[in-house]
Write a structure and sequence with these properties.
This protein is of the alpha+beta class. The chain has three helices and six strands. Helices cover 29% and strands 26% of the residues. The longest helix has 17 residues.
Length: 127
């Protein structure tokens, strides 16, 4: 996944250990998904736009907000604060929303969950 943040300054050489605290300032990266959405929004023939919302609280609200703000067709939301779901785990637990309703709840191995998500994308493309 593309990171939302990057280091403001990148050193050309190794930063040596020193006394005290080092500070790394972060700056926003370009929003690839919003840019892609802006380029194709309104086109009669365009790809299905799907985003991912890895959240630690208010998962549904943040996911639906991202879906609307970025003008997506689908959003896959998962609560990464739950054990066995998301980062550092071989399994996941997600909810897929479109602009109207919840389309899918999936839980299991990341591979199985991905197959179920792909089914929703194909359904959206054909439907």
């Amino acid at each position: 996944a593309v990171s939302d943040w990057k280091a403001e300054q990148i050193s050309a050489t190794k930063v040596k250990k020193g006394e005290g605290v080092e500070t790394v300032r972060l700056v926003r990266t370009p929003d690839v998904l919003a840019t892609a959405s802006a380029k194709v929004h309104g086109n009669a023939k365009r790809p299905v736009l799907m985003g991912f919302a890895a959240e630690t609280h208010d998962v549904e609200a943040y996911a639906r907000g991202k879906l609307t703000k970025k003008r997506l067709d689908l959003i896959v939301a998962n609560d990464v604060s739950q054990a066995g779901a998301g980062f550092g785990s071989d399994s996941n637990r997600v909810i897929v929303f479109d602009d109207i309703t919840e389309r899918l709840r999936a839980e299991g191995s990341k591979r199985d969950v991905a197959k179920e998500i792909w089914g929703v994308v194909l359904e959206r493309r054909v439907g």
